[in-house]
Design goal:
Layout (H helix, E strand, L loop, with lengths): L11 H65 L4 H29 L4 H19 L17
């Protein structure tokens, strides 16, 4: 640490300069630490996502094999192989149709943020009224969030 003009204590300017230099190096060190941690986190997340993708692919293959096994099971029960495979395919089409129906119902019931839109319109109207500078002695208050009028 450098000393001031009288040799005993550093000046205020020197203290500020030293503090600024120390703060700057601290910030740089923190940024480097954050970069290192984020890099490690990204590698771990990428590895995890790759493992999930591989597991999903293997599950898909298992489902295909189980479908074939079900069709062959129906064949073993005495059905013609073509009919057995059609039954399994029909079951999957039925399940798919049910999922589409449920999905469409869920989408139809989904609504936008109606209360937010309503209160935003009220806020805009209040701001427009304030902007016009009406000569009336009326105070305009913005609506409170979540309060319906």
């Amino acid at each position: 640490m450098s000393m001031g003009q009288n040799g005993d204590e550093p000046t205020v300017g020197q203290l500020v300069a030293n503090a600024s230099k120390d703060l700057s190096s601290l910030v740089r060190s923190e940024l480097e630490l954050a970069k290192t941690e984020l890099k490690k986190t990204a590698i771990a997340a990428g590895t995890g996502a790759g493992m999930f993708a591989a597991a999903g692919f293997l599950a898909l293959l298992a489902v295909i094999l189980l479908c074939i096994a079900a069709a062959y099971g129906l064949t073993a029960a005495g059905l013609h192989p073509a009919i057995a495979f059609l039954i399994v395919a029909g079951a999957f089409l039925l399940i798919g149709a049910i999922l589409v129906f449920i999905g469409l119902r869920a989408l139809k019931s989904a609504k936008g943020p109606t209360r937010t839109i309503e209160t935003s319109k009220e806020s805009v109207e209040a701001l427009k009224a304030i902007g016009k500078g009406d000569d009336e002695d009326t105070t305009y208050a913005l609506p409170e969030p979540g309060v319906r009028r």
